[in-house]
């Protein structure tokens, strides 16, 4: 029997078969990257939203899956759908992170319509992911790696953190020292300098709790 849960479970199963996230599958099919986000599967009042037949046709064409194959995925994924879904967090690029309007003053993501990243475990509300761009975080993090940031987590000396300055600069560093007036950050890449900033220069600082490489 056709059901909302089975259709979305089949889309998730197809994404997994292609080694893609739901966002990656949507992009492969030429759709908006947020089209298959979990937040898009229900309306604000809780009513189920179904993917359009056009979206399904594009996904099947992009992955070479027939309608019969997709129906089989629906039936096969039905049992898996009974397991609790993995938590998802919004994915933000470092360039976006430095621009105004994407975060609250406390460092929590603002707005909607982000791509999403599935996580292996639970994180606190307000967590999000940043995609590494460039080589400034080598050798620990490479271009394209995804860092999960948890603004609500306590930050301690030696933690890997992301900090944003009031000028909009966003950087991933290691917290070496933090006092009422000064923050010292160690670079992950020896080719890039360590930073010592006054507390007034830093808009927020948050701990990196997980990385997908």
Helix and strand layout, with pairings?
Layout: H1 4-17, H2 22-28, H3 53-63, H4 67-81, E1 88-93, H5 94-98, E2 115-118, E3 128-131, E4 146-150, E5 160-165, E6 170-178, E7 182-187, E8 195-198, E9 202-212
Helix pairs in contact: 1-4
Overall description:
Strands 2-1-3-4-9-5-6-7-8 form a nine-stranded mixed sheet. The chain has helices spanning 4-17, 22-28, 53-63, 67-81, 94-98, and strands at 88-93, 115-118, 128-131, 146-150, 160-165, 170-178, 182-187, 195-198, 202-212. The chain is built from five helices and nine strands. α1 crosses α4. The protein is of the alpha+beta class. The chain folds into two domains: 4-81, Orthogonal Bundle (434 Repressor (Amino-terminal Domain)); 88-212, Umud Fragment, subunit A, CATH 2.10.109. Helix content is 24%, strand content 26%. The radius of gyration is 20 Å and the shape is elongated.
Tally the helices: what do you get? 5
The computed structural class is alpha+beta
Mean pLDDT across residues: 84
Largest sheet: 9 strands, mixed
Using the CA coordinates, give the radius of gyration: 20 Å
Straight-line distance between termini = 39 Å
CATH-level-4 superfamily name of the largest domain: Umud Fragment, subunit A
Percent helix, as a range, is 10-25%
Low-confidence region ranges? none
Q: What would you call the shape?
A: elongated
